[in-house]
Design brief:
The chain is an alpha/beta fold and about 525 residues long. The chain is about 50% helix and about 10% strand. The protein contains 22 helices and 13 strands. The chain has helices at about 5-15, 20-30, 30-35, 55-65, 70-75, 90-95, 110-130, 155-165, 180-185, 205-220, 240-245, 270-275, 280-295, 305-320, 335-350, 380-385, 405-420, 425-435, 440-445, 470-490, 500-515, 525-535, and strands spanning about 35-40, 45, 105, 110, 145, 170-175, 195-200, 235, 250-255, 325-330, 365-370, 390-400, 460-465. The strands form 3 sheets. Strands 1-2-13-12-10-11 form a 6-stranded mixed beta sheet, sandwiched between helices. The protein has a 5-stranded parallel beta sheet with strand order 6-5-7-8-9, with helices on both faces. Strands 3-4 form a two-stranded antiparallel ribbon. Helix 11 links the parallel strand 8 and strand 9 (about 250-255). Helix 4 crosses helix 14 (about 305-320) and helix 7 (about 110-130) packs across helix 12 (about 270-275). The longest helix is centred in the C-terminal third of the chain and has 22 residues, at about 470-490. It is globular and about 80 Å long. The N and C termini lie far apart (about 65 Å).
């Protein structure tokens, strides 16, 4: 089947599915749950409450085949230049592969270098934790300030929040925002003599990161002897010379085939490897590698990342649903929605195909979310009764703290998925009002307000515990899901030109500020705003 024919069949199946009710599909297709749920690397993924019929499900699989899903996946893992606008391989799976793997980037072997950097990371992390690597005055490090932004921040931040002990031996704090308040909050209560600063920047030219690193350097310099300052500054970068010139006493490298939002598996997470311990970091890599193995080997119809991606494509392009919410029912995963916003929207928020021609369909939806049950008391009102259908994703952890299953927590997640699917009819709402003692007139008046249309899709992603292994699997699962969507939409998921224009213009505006006011070619609105803000 050609790609065009597959899209035509997809559209036809979606049009037929639009009038079907999800709950009715279980009776119409007795094997629906078995076909639309998958186990992989410690995760159980239930897609049976999605809006697709069996015919639509099959049409989505045909679309994946027609898009050369398997060939594009092979090219990714072979280290071909899948990031075609920058001529780069994209090899984050190499970063979590077992030692001795044979990954190549554009034909050049990379696994030996990955293994060497990983060994250096381990040695340094263990030296810091043992006190063998100490600060300028000989005192052991008790805190780390991780300075980065975007992929140099969100990945390590979600890892730390998910896995941090309640009372960590080494405190880890993050600074990303150029607002001085962010750095001030991070440094409050820390002792410069026992604080290590890890500066993460791929190019070591990122404006926000360098400004924050300078602020940290000034803070340290006020208390430490100059000859020992470099012990407190570590650089993680693909530009080690720039990091050394800045004052980093040691650098850990990663290559340009590691995209920022896919980089948490590299030295970018050095601060987490130190603060959590190397064994924890290694287990997370192993979980991701297990998901990689599933993604490469499982057939399309039993492949968890592929099926989740197809569900999103079906909602966005088949049923015109341009937003999706992710609700992790685990406090430790509270930053997962923010992580996914960057991973998915920076990867797939594109308006042209790989050949540069304009897209004719929707690409990445808006991604938003909050942890459950917090979100239930905020935007869930809209997803239950608003006029627009917003697909939901529930990430559910059976045991979030110690050993007891957190049934009050996960029962809410199950109830939300059930409520979205079933809804409540106006007649049921009226009968409920009567049962509560309302008059016929009052029950009828309130019934429309208590009606839920239902037939709203959701996915459940379930794990027994949030461990380093399952966290690694979960994050890799979403990485591959994002890649699959890019293949279906025929876009480049690995560049981010949309980030660059604002950076360039910000530098120009700063030059105007330094020159005393807006330049003549600045638009009236921006010029007026600049003048007002300059005071």
């Amino acid at each position: 089947m050609t790609r065009d024919a597959a899209w035509t069949a997809f559209d036809q199946a979606a049009a037929e599915a639009a009038s079907a009710r999800i709950v009715d599909q279980f009776a119409a297709d007795p094997d629906r749950l078995g076909r639309m749920s998958v186990e992989a690397a410690g995760l159980y993924v239930d897609l049976s409450k999605q809006s697709w019929t069996r015919a639509a499900f099959d049409a989505c699989l045909d679309l994946a085949r027609a898009s050369d899903m398997e060939g594009r996946r092979a090219a990714l893992f072979a280290g071909e230049a899948v990031n075609l606008t920058e001529g780069r391989a994209v090899l984050h799976p190499a970063l979590r592969a077992a030692p001795g793997a044979g990954f190549r980037a554009l034909g050049q072997p990379v696994s030996a270098e990955v293994d060497a950097v990983r060994a250096d990371m381990r040695a340094y992390a263990e030296a810091v934790r043992s006190g063998a690597e100490a600060g300028a005055t000989g005192r052991r490090f008790e805190a780390i300030v991780h300075v980065g932004i975007g992929g140099s921040d969100l990945g390590p931040r979600v890892v730390w929040d998910a896995l941090r002990p309640l009372d960590p031996a080494i405190d880890l704090r993050f600074v990303a925002n150029i607002d001085p308040r962010d750095m001030a909050e991070a440094l409050t209560g820390l002792d410069p003599e026992t604080t290590l600063v890890v500066v993460v920047s791929k190019t070591f030219t990122t404006q926000e990161t360098l400004a924050n690193a300078e602020a940290a350097k000034t803070w340290l310099a006020a208390f430490l002897p100059s000859e020992g300052m470099t012990k407190h500054f570590i650089g993680v970068t693909a530009a080690p010379d720039r990091a050394a010139a800045f004052g980093c006493g040691r650098t850990f490298a990663f290559r340009d085939w590691v995209g920022g939002r896919y980089s948490l598996w590299s030295a970018v997470s050095l601060s987490c490897a130190i603060a959590l311990g190397w064994d924890v970091f290694e287990q997370m890599l192993a979980g991701a590698a297990e998901m990689d193995d599933h993604f490469v080997k499982a057939p399309l119809e039993r492949n968890a990342p592929i099926l989740l991606a197809l569900a999103q494509v079906f909602n966005v392009d088949g049923l015109n649903r341009p937003a999706r919410t992710v609700a992790p029912y685990a406090h430790a995963l509270r930053r997962l929605p923010s992580f996914l916003q960057q991973l998915e929207m920076e990867s797939n928020g594109k308006r042209v195909h790989r050949d540069g021609s304009p897209v004719t369909r929707q690409t990445c939806p808006v991604v938003f979310g909050e942890p459950g049950t917090n979100g239930q008391h905020a935007f869930f009102q809209q997803i239950h009764q608003g006029p627009d259908v917003v697909p939901a994703e529930f990430v559910i952890v059976a045991r979030t703290h110690e050993d007891a299953p957190e049934s009050p927590l996960w029962s809410n997640a199950l109830a939300q998925g059930q409520a979205l699917m079933l809804g409540k009819t106006t007649e049921a709402a009226r009968a409920e009002g009567l049962a509560q003692g309302l008059s016929e007139e009052e029950a009828a008046r309130l019934a429309p307000h208590r009606t839920f249309t239902g037939n709203r899709p959701s996915t459940a992603i379930v794990m027994d515990r949030l461990t380093p292994h399952t966290l690694g699997a979960l994050l890799a699962f979403y990485e591959h899901k994002t890649f699959v969507e890019g293949v279906i939409w025929d876009i480049n998921s690995f560049d981010q030109w949309g980030v660059e224009l604002g950076k360039v213009l910000a530098k120009a505006i700063l030059k105007d500020v330094e020159a005393g006011g807006p330049s003549a070619d600045l638009d009236p609105s921006t010029a007026t705003l600049m003048t007002r803000l300059m005071g």
